[in-house]
Amino acid sequence: MQDFRGLSRQVWHQRYVAQAHWTHHIRQHILKKINSVPGERILEIGSGTSAVLTTLLREGYFNLSGIDIDFPSLLLSKTSHDPFHLAQADGMHLPFSAKTFGVTFCHFLLMWVESPSLILEEMRRVTHADGWVVALAEPDHHARIDYPLPLDELGKNQTQALKRQGVDVYMGRKLRSLFYQAGLVDVEVGILGAQWNEQNDQTADQTEWTMIKADLGDQLTTDDLTQYHNLDRQARQTRERILFIPTFYAFGKAI
């Protein structure tokens, strides 16, 4: 499988699985609050390797569809033989009739796209009246918190690297206004919770450092990255490490 931003699709799949784990509780909260039922038609925009769709399948949902612009990611998803309806498509031009789905959602997507408002308008278009459009997770990298020092410099470097890649590092705080601009109503916006405990320190997400190295490999030396990685490990061992990127969610009703 060819590389994508310097990482294989298999490595990206591991990252998507980790992200799906992070948002498990808010996903459950939202689906319960909007009274979603197992047979409802659900569409994910930017489904990647179907990490989130797979979790939904395990939770009892079965009428699941996904679109992504990246064909190799869809191909990797197909190798799992899960019964998803997948298509290669641009989120700004969804290949579905109006009012087709009960729930249309995205996950760590809007920060990457050039026109998030157009994506949301298309999501609203293909969602039936009284159905729901959901953004499960959109980080606000500009508000990132790292502790102890000098790990804050690592965070600032990675945020700048993401900006150079085209990421909107303010996307989280923009969600509420974007949802209303897209014509959605009964909009609810919030921030995913954050907890730090000994288990967090012992089970640090290894995909995080994979992404840091990919983002900063052309900016920092291998020695610099190793030093930061060692500082991160030491801070976890001494129970000092705080890494918090406010990650927003939003959902609103189509009319």
Provide an overview of this structure.
With 255 residues, this protein is an alpha/beta fold. It has a domain at 3-140 and 166-194 and 245-253: Vaccinia Virus protein VP39 (Rossmann fold), CATH 3.40.50. Helices cover 42% and strands 22% of the residues. It is built from ten helices and eleven strands. The chain has helices at residues 9-22, 24-33, 51-58, 71-78, 116-125, 151-164, 171-181, 198-202, 206-216, 222-237, and strands spanning 3-4, 7-8, 42-45, 64-68, 85-88, 101-106, 127-139, 145-147, 185-191, 242-244, 247-253. Strands 5-4-3-6-7-11-9 form a seven-stranded mixed beta sheet, with helices on both faces. It has a two-stranded antiparallel ribbon with strand order 1-2. β6, α5 (116-125) and β7 (127-139) form a beta-alpha-beta unit. The longest helix has 16 residues, at 222-237. The radius of gyration is 18 Å and the shape is globular.
String of helices and strands: EEHHEHEHEEHEEHHEHHHEE
First-last Cα distance: 41 Å
Tell me what the CATH architecture of the domain at 3-140 and 166-194 and 245-253 is: 3-Layer(aba) Sandwich
| Secondary-structure-derived class | alpha/beta
Beta-strand fraction estimate: 15-25%
The CATH topology of the domain at 3-140 and 166-194 and 245-253 is: Rossmann fold
The CATH homologous superfamily name of the domain at 3-140 and 166-194 and 245-253 equals Vaccinia Virus protein VP39
User: Spans of 5+ residues with little confidence (pLDDT < 50)?
Assistant: none
- Helix fraction by DSSP (H/I, runs of at least 4): 40-55%
| CATH top level label of the domain at 3-140 and 166-194 and 245-253 | Alpha Beta
**Going across the major beta sheet, what is the strand order?**
5-4-3-6-7-11-9
Tally the beta strands. Answer: 11
The total count of helices amounts to: 10
- Specify the overall morphology: globular
Query: What Rg do the Cα atoms give?
Result: 18 Å
